[in-house]
Amino acid sequence: xAERLTKSAARNVFxxxxxxxxxxxxxxxxxxxxxxxxxxxDQATLSAGVARGKRLWEKHSCINCHTLxxxxxxxxxxxxxxxxxWGGREDPAAARELIKAWMQxxxxxxxxxxxxxxxxxSDQELNDLADFLEWTSRIKTQNWPPNKAG
Length: 150
What we know:
The mean pLDDT is 90. The chain folds into two domains: 8-38; 47-150, Cytochrome Bc1 Complex, Chain D, domain 2, CATH 1.10.760.10. 52% of the residues lie in helices and 3% in strands. It contains five helices and two strands. The protein has helices spanning 7-40, 48-59, 82-85, 92-104, 123-137, and strands at residues 67-68, 71-72. It is elongated and about 75 Å long. Strand 1 and strand 2 form a beta hairpin.
């Protein structure tokens, strides 16, 4: 075996390594795409109300204060699991009413607490936002967030 790496051997290591890691990158990208499309989202329940709720989420910049599945600001609670925290799996109607009542009662005026602004949403908009939060609770997140506290 040679004491040092020749120029052609170094070139072969570089090209071989680059091809190997590029193939790994393509494989992981394809797997991520397959997982997101086929396993993580509940496409069967993706309704017009969910889409309108997502547009409301974006219009009012909710992500500037809240996180959704770990993405966003950490000023206010995580909302990816709010549906589960408020009993949406056991009693969806009660959870929907709780979410709507909570948004209508803001700002709460409780001293020492961060305050959510009042957006004066219509009943339809509140329903759409509740649809969106219900839908996000069904995304398979591989146990994220790690706790239910939000």
